[in-house]
Amino acid sequence: MKLIPDSPSQASQDSFVMNMLEWKKHGHYVEIGAYDPIELSNTYILEKQYGWKGISFDIKEVDFSNRSNLFMQLDATQSDYEDIFKKNNMPTTIDYLQLDIDPAPNTLAALKRIPFDEYKFSVITFEHDSYRGHESVAVESRKILQDKGYKLLIKNVGNPDPYEDWYIHPELITKNIWERYDGIEDIEWQRLYE
């Protein structure tokens, strides 16, 4: 697995996305729970080095002036994503969906608002924070995403405190790329970089 040098991602999410998508340039992302335009950002490198376009959402006011893509301050648990995606000409196949809101039940609430019947996502990272007592969020989010056709590729990222699951859509990612990571846990994921 190839790593992006100097990535600000907390657990190399951007490297995972780029490896799954064969280092695609000019992709598209949706980032629900932006937090900061650079610090711990999973989309900063995608935008700045690979020319990706996307939309970042956060309930807090965030200074995104150093980013060229759209930032929207809103409540992700109450938003009409289908309307937002259409108004901003997002493609019906979006390369990366990040879901990461605190607390984790809000991430689950946002997930339930995603228009999966209208849009597909090649790669999804979902922060469930099970180590903080949100095991039920992990269980329910897994059921929702798997019922929608997504494959839980790497679960419980974050050793020793599992906080995130990584998914791919098997129709959108080449099988010989993802199959060697199928069903691994975080500790094994970290070894892939050694």
What can you tell me about this protein's structure?
- With 194 residues, this protein is an alpha/beta fold.
- The chain contains 7 helices and 8 strands.
- The chain has helices spanning 13-20, 44-50, 81-87, 104-111, 135-147, 175-178, 186-191, and strands at 28-32, 53-58, 70-73, 93-99, 120-127, 151-157, 164-168, 184-185.
- It has an 8-stranded mixed β-sheet, with helices on both faces.
Can you summarize this structure?
The chain has 194 residues and is an alpha/beta fold. The chain contains seven helices and eight strands; from the N terminus they run H-E-H-E-E-H-E-H-E-H-E-E-H-E-H.
Q: Would you report the number of β strands? A: 8
What composes the largest sheet? 8 strands, mixed
Round the mean pLDDT to the nearest integer and report it: 92
Output the helix-strand order.
Answer: HEHEEHEHEHEEHEH
Q: Treating each run of at least 4 consecutive H or I residues as one helix, how many helices?
A: 7
Using only CA atoms, what is the Rg?
Answer: 15 Å
The order of strands across the largest sheet is 3-2-1-4-5-7-6-8
Oligomer: single chain
Low-confidence stretches: none
The end-to-end span amounts to: 9 Å
Return the structural class. alpha/beta
Helix share, percent: 25-40%
Strand content: 15-25%
Indicate the overall shape: globular
Helix-strand blueprint:
Blueprint: H1 13-20, E1 28-32, H2 44-50, E2 53-58, E3 70-73, H3 81-87, E4 93-99, H4 104-111, E5 120-127, H5 135-147, E6 151-157, E7 164-168, H6 175-178, E8 184-185, H7 186-191
